[in-house]
Design goal:
By secondary structure, the protein is an alpha+beta fold. The chain is 17% helix and 43% strand.
Length: 196
């Protein structure tokens, strides 16, 4: 077992690549995203599987992919479960999304593939990976608290807007952006989520 800091970077992860074809990440969704990003940049996605032991029962990755959040059960699955490829989501600034992306209180124009999903204001936009469709699930909530959100499934989500700070896996982008894209990567993330 090798311990690395929260949201590990290049110097923490790269020495492990090439030596191991299975890594277990115990931490936050952002920690898992940091490891997935290094696998992507080192072109190791097809050869390395990832187990995940969430540090919080509120993990979006655990919710989306039906992973246990109880530490011992999560560790047993992460070590001995079966690999199930899941969509890896990228953004146009070089980052990845493994759980939930969010944009709050926005005014702009947004598209899911070629379909317009927003023209004007919205209370929130949420994006998650989805294995049952083309890769992304996008939920747009407009207006009042009683207005139902609209949900679309697409390969890509694009937004042009008044500058805002999107967040990926609970981490806000460091600067306000007037354009943002999340899209499905061509290779999947080899996530351990099958039966033990």
């Amino acid at each position: 077992m090798v311990r690395v800091p929260s949201r590990p970077g290049k110097a923490d992860i790269d020495p492990l690549l090439g030596e191991h074809d299975h890594l277990v990440v115990a931490g936050t969704d952002a920690d898992l995203a940091a490891v997935a990003l290094r696998l992507l940049r080192k072109e190791q996605l097809p050869g390395v599987s990832l187990g995940f032991v969430p540090s919080s029962p509120d993990s979006d990755v655990a919710r989306i992919w039906s992973l246990p959040t109880q530490p011992l059960r999560a560790l047993a699955l992460a070590l001995r479960g079966e690999v199930d490829p899941v969509p890896l989501i990228r953004d146009d600034t070089g980052g990845v999304l493994v759980g939930r992306g969010a944009i709050g209180m926005i005014r702009g124009v947004a598209y899911c593939d070629e379909h317009t999903v927003l023209r004007g204001p919205a209370r929130s936009i949420e994006v998650e990976p989805d294995a049952s469709g083309p890769g992304l699930m996008v939920r747009v909530t407009k207006g009042t608290l009683f207005k139902r959100p609209t949900t679309q499934y697409a390969r890509a989500f694009q937004l042009g807007c008044i500058p805002t700070r999107p967040s990926s896996d609970g981490v806000a982008h460091p600067r306000a952006m007037s354009r943002w894209t999340w899209y499905r990567h061509t290779e999947d993330l080899r996530l351990v989520r099958g039966l033990v």
